[in-house]
Amino acid sequence: MSEYLPGLAGVPATQSNISDIDGEKGILAYRGYPIEQLAEKSTFEETTLLMLDGKLPTAQELEDFDQRIRASRRTQYHIRDLMKTFPPSGHPMEMLQTAVASLGMFYPGNECLTDADACEDLNYIHNMTVEIIARMATIVAMWEHLRRGYEPPEPRSDLSYAENFLYMFTGTEPDPLLAKIMDVCLILHAEHTINASTFSVLVTASTLASPYSVIAAAIGTLSGPLHGGANQKVLEMLAEIGSPAKVEKYIDNKLANKEIIWGMGHREYKTKDPRAKFLEKLVDKLLESRGGNVNPLLETAKEVERISEDRLAHKGVYANVDFYSGILYHEMGIPADQFTAIFAVARSAGWLAHWREQLGDNRIFRPTQVYTGEPSRDYVPIELRN
Ligand code: COA
């Protein structure tokens, strides 16, 4: 019998050449390029194309891809009408999962997936990728208006992906610094090897389900607080703590009760997540641009990190990506329940790169199990049971 490893810890689930993590050194690279360099020098559009095609695009390739994304931002008004029927109190991740799943009915195009050979049709894969990535941002931004009872602004094709997202989300001209920060956040969240949601991409893709079903499955997986949902939880935790002076008691109580400190710990990293380091610097940069006043939320967060490290570093538990992203989004004026949906917008790039990779060498996922139930036994008629 093969050994069962809970959570498949350390078990390779696939071969992939999209991204790589060195968990001891705290390094993350997409297609070999360290994320710090991509965050400083690239754009979300270019990074997405890098992940899809495996190489940095030429100027012409990037221009073509960018134009196609800009042209695909609009959604049919039926989708807006559908979203208007959702309860305004609904969580944005449930809204997003439902709306993305519905795209499969409004924009069918999965006919090639009935033929396994056609799965290598790169045109089809590129088209679906562009359409989904373009519309993910539109849907999240539209919801911000629809749930408040307003008509959302139309997408603008004269803006970059990050600029257009902020414009549609807030309804105002995007501030250049905020647009740059959003672009960097999208890059940093775009991909992360075989995490839980990407694993669900592989499983769903391996059945030749439509890419909309693939991404809807991944959105559901990302929503959990042990995965992408942690960024919202971090902000709620900081609000609950209230001030740096209350941190130590709060953390010690949590740990004594065997509860989780949100935004801490990672299966792969045994040091601080490199994305958390970058995001922390972005928070500092944003606050500096506003005069560098002391920010109680950030001060509380830094104290949570310090005390958590003191208590948990021996277990290899340090701040992860979700620790500082929530603070950053909060400072950008984004409501906490939208944080994970924005994560999903960014991660759609990595998910679709993995969808493409899975289709290129597909075999349906069908693992085995270790049965721990009753041995074979005979059915007992209801009148004889006690
Ligand atoms: N708070 C307190 N203790 C934590 C912790 C956290 N956030 N993360 C890990 N630990 C502890 C575990 O209790 C365990 O202790 P033990 O060995 O005494 O039992 C040890 O560290 C190993 O953790 P484990 O739960 O086995 O790690 P995992 O790889 O299965 O889980 C996470 C990884 C991410 C699910 C986990 O660290 C976690 O729940 N983090 C908080 C949620 C979060 O921020 N998620 C976003 C990830 S990007």
Largest sheet: 3 strands, antiparallel
Separate helix tally: 16
Placed side by side, the strands forming the largest sheet appear as 1-2-3
Number of E-type strands? 3
The total domain count is 2
CATH class wording of the largest domain: Mainly Alpha
CATH topology of the largest domain: Citrate Synthase, domain 1
What does the radius of gyration come to? 22 Å
Any guess at the CATH architecture of the largest domain?
A: Orthogonal Bundle
Please provide a written account of the structure:
The protein has 386 residues and is mostly helical. The chain has two domains: 21-224 and 336-360, Citrate Synthase, domain 1 (Orthogonal Bundle); 230-331, Cytochrome p450-Terp, domain 2, CATH 1.10.230. It is 55% helix and 3% strand. It is built from 16 helices and three strands. It has helices at residues 35-41, 44-53, 59-71, 77-84, 92-106, 122-146, 161-170, 176-188, 196-206, 211-222, 230-241, 247-256, 274-289, 296-312, 321-331, 339-360; strands at residues 19-22, 27-30, 33-34. Strands 1-2-3 form a three-stranded antiparallel beta sheet. Helix 1 packs antiparallel against helix 8, helix 2 packs parallel to helix 16 and helix 8 crosses helix 16. The longest helix has 25 residues, at 122-146. Residues 7, 226-227, 230, 260-267, 312, 315, 317, 320-322 line the site of coenzyme A.
